[in-house]
Each structure stands twice: as C-alpha cells, then as structure tokens.
Amino acid sequence: MTVKSYTGDKEKLGSAEQFFLQLSEVKNFTVMVDGMLLMEEFQPNVGILQLQVDHYLQTCDSLLDNKSLKQFLHLVLVTGNFLNSGSYAGNAAGFRLSTLPKLMDTRANKPRMTLLHYLVEVAEKQDKEMLDFISDMKYLKQCARISFEALEAEFNQLHLGVTKLKEQIEGDDTNLIEHFGKFIQQALKQLEKLDCGLKELRVKASKLAKHFCEDPNVFKVEECLSLFNNFCEKLKSAQKENEERRKQEERMKQLKQQRLTQQKGRKKDTRIRQSSVSGILKTLLQRNTSDSEDPRELRKKYVS
C-alpha cells in the first residue's frame, strides 16, 4: 500500500507521510521537482564544463603553435639524426610522439645522465627560451586528466535534461512554463555555445594528429595531452638534476683546487726546511774553516 492510495484519516499519518501525500496532490509535481533540481545543478555544472572545454582548446592551440616547443622538438630530431647517422634512421624528417618517453632510456657516459638531460643542457646553452613551453602550457596537467569522451558525456547529460524538461512543459496549462520557460531558453543558449566548443575541439584533435604525423583513426587527444604532460614533468626533473649535478661538479672542482693548493704549500714548506738545513750546515762549515781547521778533518767531524 502506498501513501497515495491511503484513504483513511490523514491526521494519523506521520509528518513525512502527510507532506508526501500533499505533494502528490500537486499537478505535475514530479516535473516540478525534477525541474527545480535541474535548475539548481545546471549552472555550476555547465560553468565547470565550459571552463574545461576552454582550457582544452587553449592547450591544443599551445601544442600546435608554441614556438619554443617546435624548437625543442627540432633539437630532438637533429640530435637523433646525428646519433643514428650511417643507419637507415639517420636522415629522418620527423619522429613519432612515442619517441619522446624513450629519451629517458638512452644513457650517457655520466652517472644518472640520459639523452634527455643532455638535450635540456644543450637547449639551455643555445637559447634559454627554448624550454619556455613547459610553463607556457599552464592547463596541460589539468586537461591531461580529462578525457574528451567524458566531456561529451557530461554535455549530453546536461542537454538531455534540458530538452526533456522542455518537452514536459510544452502545452501545459499550469505555471510550469512560467516557472521554467526563461531558464530553458538561457540553458539552451549556453549548451549551444558549449556544443560549438566541443565541435571546435574535434577539429583541433584532427589538426593535432596531422601536425604530429599520427594516424587520425587511432589518435586520441587525451592520450596526446597525457604524453606531453608526462614529458614536461620529466623535463622539469632533468632541469633540476642538471642543476644539482653542476653544483656538485663545482664543489668537486673547488675541493680539487684546495687539495692542489695544500700540496703546493707542503712542497714549499719542505723546500724551505731543506734550504734552512743547508744554510745552517754551510754556516757551520764556514765558521770552522775560518779557524784554519783542515776541511778534510771538518768533513769527518760533521759527516761521521
């Protein structure tokens, strides 16, 4: 038995049951409740989604147009061709994005130094701005956590809720149109703008696939963003480790210089002592010689 089918004394019902019974008597109360919940949740959700789409678009533009990123990728290509000179891969016109994570796997002849560390070192020497793309793409980390499919799914859910409410209130003679009509008009305009952003994002994804010579049929923009985010994090680590190594090498150089200085000082002290002993012996010899003592006897006296 439901509260709605109850025909007895309403006063005997609890307060919650009485409230639900009164609510069930309101015409289209289900539509009213669902509509009010949609109005309450729509603006925060669409605002967050619009911001995510905008950040996604900005990040895609950065990957396509950032000058310092192009310079660094060119450095990677030139270095790779040099290392592979003489082989079939030594004259490449480009490389796949999957190559970037492998830069950490190629070891140098210094401890804890990889090809990526070397490239960072060269980039900083050639042009200090070549690594600016690491900080330029400020939304990369945030966007790398969001899939394009998730954005579309969130949009479809919002759009479905608004269109469903619109269909439910059409032709209704109650105050539903008056209550929800303005909200639906504004919501549809916001969703139209959001849909344009998602369509533009699809175009950007195709451009990225073409820009990086990837297969557009399997290319996923979220995977591309995740790859570059991880790559930038490794670049930051390489920068930090290079700086620590430079400081350590400088300390070792200073210690070596101190040891050389100390060694020179000890050698000088030894020469001074030897000179002093020779001077004393010479003085004694001269003094004894002045007393007309036979030099042969004098030699026997001090040498024996």
From TrEMBL:
Start-end of Basic and acidic residues biased regions: 243-253
PROSITE patterns reported in the protein's UniProt record: FH2
Region (Disordered): 243-304
Record-linked InterPro entries: FH2_Formin (IPR015425), FH2_Formin_sf (IPR042201)
Any one Pfam family match given in the protein's UniProt record, by short name: FH2
Domain of life: Eukaryota
Residues annotated as domain FH2: 1-261
Protein name in the entry: FH2 domain-containing protein 1-like isoform X2
